Amino acid sequence: MTTLLEITSLKTWFPTRDGIVKAVNAVDLKIEEKEKLGLIGETGSGKSILGMSIIRLFHSSAKINIEGKIVYKGKDLLRLSEEEIRKIRGKEIAMILQNPATSLNPVLKVGDQIAEAIQLHQRLAKRAASEKAVEMLEAVKIPAPDKMANKYPHEFSGGMKERAMIAMALACDPSLIIADEPTKGLDVTIKMQVVKLLREVTKQRSMLFITHDLGVAAEVCDNIAVMYAGELVEYAKTEDIFKNPLHPYTQGFLNSLPERGLKPIRGMSPSLINLPDGCRFHPRCDYATGICKTRHPEMAEIGNGHFVRCLLYDRS
Amino acid sequence: MTEIKDLNRFWNAYKESRLGLIGLAILLFFVTLAVFAPYIAPYDPHEMFKPMEHPGSDHLLGTNDIGQDILSELIYGARVSLFIAFFVSVVSGIIGTAFGLLSGYFEMFGFFLMRIVDAFLAIPRLPLIIVIAAFMRPSIWNLIFIFIILGWPITTRIIRSEVLSLRTRNYVEAARMVGAPDTYILMKHILPNVFPLLVVRLIIEASHVIIAESSLSFLGLGDPTAKSWGMILHYAFVYPTIFISDLWMWWMLPAGLCITFTILSLTFIGYALEELVNPRLRGMTRI
Amino acid sequence: MIEVKDLRKYFSSGILKKQYIKAVDGVSFQIERGETLGLVGESGCGKTTVGKLLLRLIEPTSGKISFDGIDLLQLKKKELRKVRPRMQMIFQDPEASLNPGMKVGDSIAEPLKLQGGLNKREIKNKVSELIETVGLNPEHVNRYPYQLSGGQNQRVVLARVLALNPDFIVADEPTSSLDVSVQAQILNLIRDLKRELHLTLLFISHDLEVVRHMSDRIAVMYHGKIVEIGNAKDIFNDARHPYTNTLISPASIVDIKTTSDYHGVSGCVFYPGCPFAAEICSKKEPEMVEIGSGHWVACYYIS
């Protein structure tokens, strides 16, 4: 397998009036070709910002400092100009944003929106683009795609909108899809349909799957990276994360699921402005010792591609 | 304590807007002129000197056709114009808010009141003002009365639509759940939350009133004894040789600039406040 | 404690051509004193409407609700205000349930002030007592909702709700906007408080796992109707209605149609999406049948 995307010590910081929001803090991450990587974290862990940093999907007036390296097919995306990255956005790397209700323009027909996405990157006549849009809607299993292409977003149900978003992301046949909470707010039955669809359409592609829903991640992903307070704390094969979670946060996260007994983690996630010293998780950790308060642990491989950032496993 | 802190927080956010600061500075300048007019103005604006004097060391902006010092007229004019604007926007704001709250909260009352509001809003404002003003005797209080009559329906409508959305908020329902009576809910839970919107509305209304007052005065429908900026324009405009000589440069232009800058400052302030009040207008990335 | 009979709420839309949306269509159930009834269903199935109807936050189209022997729908506005403190509701979004301009301490004190009978000092003491009960720190009293996290705000809401010693609480998806690790904290708190204070609870959620954890009995709702009701154990181990089964193992069912397809369907509400649908299902609505002790199902396939 070859590496498609490699992120090295990525930092995305937002200077604000109250201080610097360190949303992403020295993250290293690799996505192989055809790999489905899950990025798990809670609100404010920086997972969405990490996804947006890859293709710099920020408002142009936002004050942001992005540092590090994001190498995609040999090119460092962070060194590209706005013009150059626009050519990659949508065509090479497509993003499925959370909240399909607001990501679709309410006054444009769904088919036209998809056709527009196609025409941005391919020289196609309007007719041909529209036909392609219908094809895409068919690919995401929307019934009567030629009719539905002529409808407005409000005529679509939540699950259908999500499908339309996926169709738009697929329109230019990207190699990497970044899906940001694509199942958020969907009902269980609809959620499983969307998950199934995502699995099908990404067979020949890579995907960075950002979610807080572990159940869904288990269905879709080969590997899982767990993010807490702006950094990765654990990385392993999906199976290992579930069967043998090492980091106390991952363990706590799993145990707080209702089906695993609803045992909560005490306290709450730290603010990204005032991160605790030492291990970011130590104020909430049951295993924390004195050294955890001062020493910031590094990611270390425990064996067989299982990485963890915790002093409990530190052998030095 | 926390109230002061809140004001501080508000000011810190407001400071971010450069337009807002510029607007505030200009407005403060005119307010200072208005408040301290007797100390700032070199003469009594009604005192008569030699007519049609060109600008010089005695009269910085010259004198008008009956010999009144134009600079003093301008400074006192700030008083009249700002007073009318302030008074009208506050009174019509109070009426509009009261009706807005009631009509948003009580459906039947709201339905009937909105038909009246519709009728008011359907009539174009300025022509109506002109017609009414022409029939009534021109005086400041009559002008104020007309502006209030025409100002409240817009405020009512804006406040009502906000109340309609606020009253379905969970915290209003929660207050009902603990047995709060309607008047209590209106005063305690709804009024404070329409307040920011109301402030923006008052600012906008004030600038409308300044424009309307100047236009009426300019057309000769204002109070002939009041020294407002509009009246200065009016007297200058009816003077025969105003545009074929240099007269307009010190007689008309300064009054025009005063009106323009006051309205500009109010617009800037309104714009800055609206950005604070309405988070959708803020161009920021959510984290 | 609570008895609901044939409750209906139709919303109408359109001015010229009236269309009715049957949000709640003939729902009946009881909740015993000290019991938690879980109400599960997908978004738009009418479960929140049921909760609000029960507290008369909205008026039903028809039906009967009795609360502790009182016929709620017969009460006048004034009488209702007297009963209200005994029934409370916890909403989905904690921040939206608190007035953004009020300090949380004042929000908690508000119901006490409104009910009267306590002086300032007593109110203050009661507030600090409540704050402690829900696991907040005394310094939180002077903060505003936007300065607290979602979990903390939900604790404030709980404190406020408990201020009046209610008998019955409707909890409408109280944790669906919270993170998983915080969700567990709040759910455990609600469960503990319920036990300590002998509360009766209607727990509404779309998450069957959460409901299982919280409830003694579970009612499954689909498109305005209850399709199955029974003990939590029975619903999980012996679910009978095809729809309940899809909720328990969603992977097993593939293509359920979307909401809009259902309006105007006669017969069983689940018929268009049901894998076991027979001819009769499309014609006549199935009745609730008791198939075990307290386990009722509305489905021809089962009966």
Quick gist of this model?
By secondary structure, chain A is an alpha/beta fold.
Topology:
The complex is a heterotrimer of chains A (316), B (287) and C (303).
Chain A: E1 3-16, E2 19-32, E3 36-40, H1 47-54, E4 65-72, E5 75-76, H2 82-88, E6 93-96, H3 100-103, H4 110-121, H5 126-139, H6 145-148, H7 158-170, E7 176-180, H8 188-201, E8 206-211, H9 214-220, E9 223-228, E10 231-237, H10 238-243, H11 248-255, E11 300-303, E12 306-308
Chain B: H1 2-15, H2 18-35, H3 37-40, H4 70-105, H5 107-122, H6 125-135, H7 140-166, H8 170-177, H9 182-218, H10 229-238, H11 247-251, H12 253-277
Chain C: E1 2-13, E2 19-31, E3 36-40, H1 47-54, E4 62-67, E5 70-71, H2 77-83, E6 87-90, H3 104-115, H4 120-133, H5 150-162, E7 168-172, H6 180-197, E8 200-205, H7 208-214, E9 217-222, E10 225-231, H8 232-237, H9 242-248, H10 279-283, E11 289-292, E12 295-297
Parallel strand pairs in C: 3-8, 3-9, 6-7, 7-8
Antiparallel strand pairs in C: 1-2, 1-4, 4-5, 9-10, 10-12, 11-12
Account of the 3D structure:
The complex is a heterotrimer of chains A (316), B (287) and C (303). By secondary structure, chain A is α/β, with parallel strands linked by helices. Chain A has 11 helices and 12 strands. Chain A has helices spanning 47-54, 82-88, 100-103, 110-121, 126-139, 145-148, 158-170, 188-201, 214-220, 238-243, 248-255, and strands spanning 3-16, 19-32, 36-40, 65-72, 75-76, 93-96, 176-180, 206-211, 223-228, 231-237, 300-303, 306-308. Chain A has an 8-stranded mixed beta sheet with strand order 6-7-8-3-9-10-12-11, with helices on both faces. Chain B is mainly α. Chain B has a single domain (24-279), classed as Orthogonal Bundle (MetI-like fold), CATH 1.10.3720.10. Chain B is elongated. Chain C has 10 helices and 12 strands. The B-C interface holds B 2, 169-171, 173-181, 184, 188-189, 192-193 and C 55, 57, 81-82, 84-85, 87-89, 91-93, 96-101, 103, 110-111, 114-115, 142, 157, 160, 163-164.
